[in-house]
Amino acid sequence: MGHRKYELYSMDWDLKEELRDCLVAAAPYGGPIALLRNPWRKEKAASVRPVLEIYSASGMPLASLLWKSGPVVSLGWSAEEELLCVQEDGVVLVYGLHGDFRRHFSMGNEVLQNRVLDARIFHTEFGSGVAILTGAHRFTLSANVGDLKLRRMPEVPGLQSAPSCWTTLCQDRVAHILLAVGPDLYLLDHAACSSVTPPGLAPGVSSFLQMAVSFTYRHLALFTDTGYIWMGTTSLKEKLCEFNCNIRAPPKQMVWCSRPRSKERAVVVAWERRLMVVGDAPESIQFVLDEDSYLVPELDGVRIFSRSTHEFLHEVPVASEEIFKIASMAPGALLLEAQKEYEKESQKADEYLREIQELGQLTQAVQQCIEAAGHEHRPDMQKSLLRAASFGKCFLDRFPPDSFVRMCQDLRVLNAVRDYHIGIPLTYSQYKQLTIQVLLDRLVLRRLYPLAIQICEYLRLPEVQGVSRILAHWACYKVQQKDVSDEDVARAINQKLGDTPGVSYSDIAARAYGCGRTELAIKLLEYEPRSGEQVPLLLKMKRSKLALSKAIESGDTDLVFTVLLHLKNELNRGDFFMTLRNQPMALSLYRQFCKYQELETLKDLYNQDDNHQELGSFHIRASYAAEERIEGRVAALQTAADAFYKAKNEFAAKATEDQMRLLRLQRRLEDELGGRFLDLSLHDTVTTLILGGHNKRAEQLARDFRIPDKRLWWLKLTALADLEDWEELEKFSKSKKSPIGYLPFVEICMKQHNKYEAKKYTSRVGPEQKVKALLLVGDVAQAADVAIEHRNEAELSLVLSHCTGATDGATADKIQRARAQAQKK
């Protein structure tokens, strides 16, 4: 087992107290460090307020604030790098990286009543969770503080005092509590408390003093009062190894130190002045601690920081071990030596290179050097290994350059964020696990916008994922600077962002409004090209009239309707109508809406505008839609007629009055004759009377309403034909000269398939329509004679088109001869 420890930073923070006198929390993945000075467990003057300080991993101060809330039991960082402060009363306060208060939540009334003895912040695939041990020795937890669902864990039988140690486990996507009470271990899940026994545990254990879960929640380590450290799986079904460290004093901290996909298992145990790395090897690795230190478990190692230094302890990667171990003959080691000799212009370079090529391991050597470069912290060692890889590539015909180029890019990004002033000491493995998008988010969170943009441009990330997103975050931060005028902030944001794709000015304006800068938000919305994004925020800011103007400019009727309904609820009726009068398009749309939804409001609009024409039309529609009684309908029509007179539309007024007369007459006809007359048209009323045999009444109605003779004859002709009252029809035709001629009589009879009756009227049809009448009754020969007599080419063609070869051949010949004679003349 090979482990190495190297310095990340020389800490330059000004700590006034020892770490042991502070509550400490450090975020993984090279995250920030939080210290709560003067915690309540120390004896201090009541007048001295505790101070919460947040530093980068390099010791650069990020925030400092006086603690004005209740006593804090535990600190911890969420996966989003928010600081969770668990108070004694069960309230959890959440702060940002720069000390800005975000929110708070409570862990429940039971926790409030019994107070908090201890707390743990843990991470699952669902998010960051909080587990609480109360004064009643009961556990409460929430697996995700972003979606708070409290779970009270089962009671441990006979538990009268706090457990000697406890931790949270994540098994099968569910959070559990593992606790030690004397020599016994208990596992709490949502349903039950079960006693568990680690397999292969050394005898004589009377108490468990410390326990640690690996970064991935797959392995568990237990420190016993006999000095043994048991290591196994978190399921407690498999033992990995056991180590006797010969120290029975309880350690300050115990954390796992393992590399992803490594078969080696190691645990780091810290006492006041000693650090021990133990695993399945018979010997341990020990380090002397010169000062009070704190351990931070990471994905691939352990960060160790103290007042003066910040170091990283990890298992040596295979590629690095192969290259750098003493007298190594690995291909990577030989290639590194060959490159160094080449720089010295020594012929040994050729000898080393030939040795690698003879073994056929040059590709492997290049890959080893590239991989080892990724795991080196010092830039000079990275460059040396990459130069060796580049040197080896020159002697390979088809080595794909992607891995080399990608490693160069990754290391350049890593070296940039590891810089002391940035203070994010990510390893290559952590960087790959975290992803570039999350790293950019963390730079944005630290307000390191220029560096984030440089990385995006260097890696050529798509604008929407890279530069645009970061500029949007910068703009949201910019609007919070209240010492700069609204005009200057808006101008600076527009100059920087312009029309950058993927940037939403409305989102930035919403942030400005959230900060209480309404005027700035309005100025920023002027740069937003999408009205659909402008309008909702303007409504939220109670700038409804401006929102209406923007919606109308957009031409989006749905958007205009949205604003109108908002205005209707916001303003009183008078102000609302006055606003509409100044916006003709909005008024027109609102009228359309009212036609289908709010008829009374529509009437009020017409009244306010003195629009008597539309008001009359409204009352006519209302008389039929809303009124069932004849009296109510007539009254509504009278109101409509009055409105039409005011609008100087005499035609509409007279027509309305005629309709009122017709309605009254129809009611009287129903009362006297029975049957249904109401709501029939004038023509239908006449037709119904004729069909009922009430000819005189029909004629009287026609006179009353001045129905023209032609129209009356048509109505009577149609009605009598429908009744098939041919005798009455003949009498009617002879009553006086027909104003519509007699061709309609022929047509109507033929429509009723009565040729006999139709022929009665053909002789009375005028000369100009005689041919057509004869053809209707099928008398083609006579039609031909009349057409020849008239010498009308059109009529001759019409008759000829009705001739059939079999029956009308003689007629057709006759027409052709007549045509020939006409042409000779």
Topology, please?
Elements: E1 3-10, E2 23-26, E3 33-37, E4 51-55, E5 61-66, E6 72-77, E7 83-87, E8 91-95, E9 101-106, H1 109-114, E10 116-124, E11 127-134, E12 139-142, E13 151-152, E14 165-171, E15 174-181, E16 184-188, E17 193-196, E18 208-213, E19 219-224, E20 228-233, E21 239-244, E22 253-256, E23 266-270, E24 274-279, E25 285-288, E26 293-298, E27 301-306, E28 309-315, H2 318-324, H3 331-343, H4 348-358, H5 362-374, H6 379-393, H7 402-418, H8 428-434, H9 436-445, H10 449-459, H11 467-478, H12 486-497, H13 505-514, H14 518-525, H15 531-540, H16 544-554, H17 557-570, H18 573-581, H19 584-597, H20 599-608, H21 612-625, H22 630-646, H23 650-673, H24 682-691, H25 695-704, H26 709-723, H27 726-735, H28 743-751, H29 755-762, H30 767-776, H31 780-790, H32 793-802, H33 809-824
Antiparallel strand pairs: 1-28, 2-3, 3-4, 4-5, 6-7, 7-8, 8-9, 10-11, 11-12, 12-13, 14-15, 15-16, 16-17, 18-19, 19-20, 20-21, 22-23, 23-24, 24-25, 26-27, 27-28
Cα gyration radius (Å): 49 Å
Mean pLDDT: 85
Q: Determine the number of helices (DSSP H or I, runs of at least 4 residues).
A: 33
Order of strands across the main sheet: 1-28-27-26
Instruction: State the distance separating the first and last CA atoms.
Output: 130 Å
Structural class: alpha+beta
Into which percentage range does the β-strand content fall? Answer: 15-25%
Outline type: elongated
Poorly predicted ranges: none
Compute the number of strand runs: 28
Query: In which range does the helix fraction lie?
Result: 40-55%
